[in-house]
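Can anyone check this?
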Amino acid sequence: MNDIAASLRHAYYMEDLNRIEVPPLLFAHRGGKADAPENTIEAFKLALLNGSNGLESDAQVTECGNVVLHHDRKFGSLFKRKAIKRCELLHLPSSIPSLRDFYTEIDGDFDLSIDIKDSKAVEEILDISKEFLFPLEKLWLCHPDIEKIALWRNLDETVRLVNSTTLEHVKEGPERRIANLSEIGADAFNMHFSEWNEGLVSLCHRFEIRSFAWDAQLGRQLSWLFSIGIDGVFSDHVERMTNSWKEYKPKPRAS
């Protein structure tokens, strides 16, 4: 039995070597909104303390041209909603951080995934990231439109570009989409966790495209994704995500 167990561990280890990202990127979705108010400095700090090696947020642009981290286009109570793009930065609640606030307050070695809600944010994100010396090879810009992604590649050769979508919206089929992503210089294909299988992960890797899975919330979902070689996951539950990786993490066979 010991020999069998050792062989299985070795098989898992060899499988893990097929990942592009080793270890996989563990993105705290909106900073890990199950643990703290989403997209807040508090959430981002807590996510890193809980072992996440990646943070995820959303970019909006204020009327004065500042990039802020907020999922919705509007903020405020139900009957007093205001559009961020029509507000000055100073008029936003303190719970909505600017990207400058983020880089000022958050320290550590981590990857940052930003869901681009307003395309006007992209150049400013790149400029601010460079100003704060954040390595662009650790910055992932996500969008469903591959034509926009192709344009963003012309802005910088090193920033990571991600096509976030669902199979329903991939009319040309996943193989053609992944090939197109490779042609335009994108780095990752991001789909709902339920749409991935081992074959699609392998297809991505064949084109040197990373496989990302969003909305992975349960331990069994996360463990399954790790087992098929996924390169990155997005979860609201940071401790659950990091613990699932620790429990799954294959060990090399002893020599």
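Reply from J.R.: I decoded it. The first strand starts at residue 25 and ends at 28.
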